[in-house]
Amino acid sequence: MSHLNLNPQSIAIVGASHTPGKVGYNTLRNILVSRYKGAVYPVNPKGGEILGLECYSSLLEIKNKIEMAVITTPAVLVPSVIADCAKKNVETAVVISSGFSEVGRPDLEKELLKVKGDVRIIGPNALGIKNPWGPLDAAFGPLDATFSYVMPKKGGIGLISQSGALLLGMAHLANEEAIGLSLIVSVGNKIDVDDADLIDYFNEDPHTKVIAIYLEQVNNGDRFMKAAKRSKKPIVAVKAGRSEAGLRATASHTGAMGGSDKIYDSAFRQAGIIRAFSVTELFDYANTLALMPKARNSRIGIVTNGGGLGITITDACESLGLEVPQPSPETLKRLRDLIPKEIKPGNPADLGGLANFSDCREAGKALIEDNKIGGVIMALVQTGLTKLEEYTSATIEVARRGKELGKPTIGCWMGGKQIRDLREILAESEVPIYPSVSRAAKVMAMLCSCYTK
Amino acid sequence: MSHLNLNPQSIAIVGASHTPGKVGYNTLRNILVSRYKGAVYPVNPKGGEILGLECYSSLLEIKNKIEMAVITTPAVLVPSVIADCAKKNVETAVVISSGFSEVGRPDLEKELLKVKGDVRIIGPNALGIKNPWGPLDAAFGPLDATFSYVMPKKGGIGLISQSGALLLGMAHLANEEAIGLSLIVSVGNKIDVDDADLIDYFNEDPHTKVIAIYLEQVNNGDRFMKAAKRSKKPIVAVKAGRSEAGLRATASHTGAMGGSDKIYDSAFRQAGIIRAFSVTELFDYANTLALMPKARNSRIGIVTNGGGLGITITDACESLGLEVPQPSPETLKRLRDLIPKEIKPGNPADLGGLANFSDCREAGKALIEDNKIGGVIMALVQTGLTKLEEYTSATIEVARRGKELGKPTIGCWMGGKQIRDLREILAESEVPIYPSVSRAAKVMAMLCSCYTK
After folding, report:
1. What's the mean pLDDT in B124-133?
2. Is residue B133 part of a domain?
3. What is the ipTM of this complex?
4. Closest CB to A308 among B143, B172, B240
5. Same domain, A198 and A60
6. For residue B304, what are the domain limits?
7. Which member of A173, A314, A417 has the closest CB to residue B176?
8. A397 and A361 Cβ atoms separated by less than 8 Å
9. Which of A31, A202, B71, B186 is the right S-S partner for B126, CB 3.0 to 4.6 Å?
């Protein structure tokens, strides 16, 4: 079987359209707009030129090697296109066309499988793929007049989604939260390439550090479990349709049968898959795993400039089974010099409102270097005194020291617009940062593997 | 006893300073910058002019009536200033000065109480107050060079905080989340005006619809319980220091003794106080209660443009004890015309990616007008197709219809920057909107009063 290839050197877009707004036009436009560096061949039997490129009448007319075909023709034509792909030794076909089992035409899917030969098929009824590292955007949105194009930032999360709409929403959300992705794949009806294949693919992909999956149904449980078990990279998954009403909605969304949530739960546990219960959690967990080592133990150090924030984080940590212990006497001695005299040094280490770069960095280092402590949360509240940039840079240095020691550092930044801007700086420096105490505590608990819902 | 007055027509700032950066300068500056319309009298025995205002040598030298005195002098001088307030019939004194029981000088607090007469004292060691409706900012931050001044938007949440830093952080956060406040009060050491007084005050305040409290300790449980029980407006509270480590941190933060979390929990329940477990929850609950009626029952309707989003919201609702039932046959008939034929109409009502203003509005109305349904969540995911503005305006109309019927409408908007901008439009139209399924489901569960942690 041909190798699945999601970083192709050449692409044919079969069903390329002359009409802006049509899927076959917009997908070609996205490939070009994404600054893709490989060769692009539009295929349309009517010929002519689209977006400055000469059309080929068929795949077979193209002389050069084609690594990927993106297909947007009507469903009834897709089997013959796939047969052409097989003849032409195309490695990967991304079938964006809909009109298959999701509308009661599973027969068309069987035809695809019959003629596909060595071709690996993504879809049909897939939204496409987005590869920020390529760069390559071979997905069909947007169709809106304002062209709200979205390409995620480069990063370490390989994302698989069974929902096309959610996939685009997640791409927007990732950018909004300053989270980097290595690749997004919309799997559509999963008649050939499924989650198991992609888990294997992401394990070979040098940019992917964590695999994140939004999943409504696993078709082949055995293959899925084996791939998950052999994965050397952590997997986080949302299985949607947990509740009965959710399952009912799943059935009418993708036609998936779902299956009892308990089965998924125990399967995930067996395969070492970390379960998330929403897209927010999926990103929070995956992002943290992409950037930080696991915690050494569940005893957490907290540094803050706001007493109240320190207390609420402490509460959130302890409610998830983490400990926020008194640090060693040695650490307390180091903290004493950094903390205003009217505040008692301890954990959380409350630096007071006026602390500067060095106070914050040294307090973070004192805690993360303490043998008792398994990981540190740097918590900042934006007051009228807070030296936001100083805390941010200090936190990056604490995180660097933590990585040397194999201990995670998480940021929890509470405030307004300026905070949002600083998040991007932290993200670039690979420090995960969350705007709420519960999200920060949850990811830390996940790193301590002691968090179970 | 004089009436507590947090919307004064005249203010003296005692301890006004000539030196920018000092608390006594910055507080005066904030009063002026906040576009306060009343009379302002700086008091400084050295005389001279500050920010264009002539200083008075003492409170008693001012001829006109003074409704509020804001005090920033050294702690040892505060008793004599309070004595002057009493002589001058000042109604409310906001004591920003620190150096009292929090640093081992409870004797100074006793002196204040001895000389205060009819004056109501907020603090000492308070950050001050911010009144967006006044407008009046009588709080001392910021001290930073860039003057990151923060005044919350006008709204219906009356906020009380025992933590000064957190209070400023919450003001920034409220603006970032497009949440409006009626007033913020930093209570400091609470020697006179406490949470109970402010609950009574907010019940009389025409702008306040909900009372939100960040609390580390209640000094007088009996007074607090009585005020909470007689409150006609809902109260949401975070009691920080739930865990043992959190309690330890509380003791070193405000010197508060805390007390067993179970006692607070059952007291809150008795008094009908809604308990939040973080500042995020505090705002989510308070904001929703300020804008929406309680749900009629716990059966929720969901409208969405993304199948996957609909399923995950359904899961989140059901995991909190809400139901997402099939709607009545009549409603299904109305939905049938609005939903693409390949999608089965139901609840969640999945409108597909291309739905427009009218589809979204009619689907929302169909569900909210269904007698089975107690409240509606309008959920939108930003894809390349989504008509963001159309959904937003449609959601506002659904919410309006819901209010007529006494049923709540919550938005759940998932995506990027454009989504954030639309949140402000929804906020202006008084529709609460949350960027995650769990937050949207949680507030709905709170409105159904079936959410218990």
Report:
1. 96
2. no
3. 0.89
4. B240
5. no
6. 300-447
7. A417
8. yes
9. B186
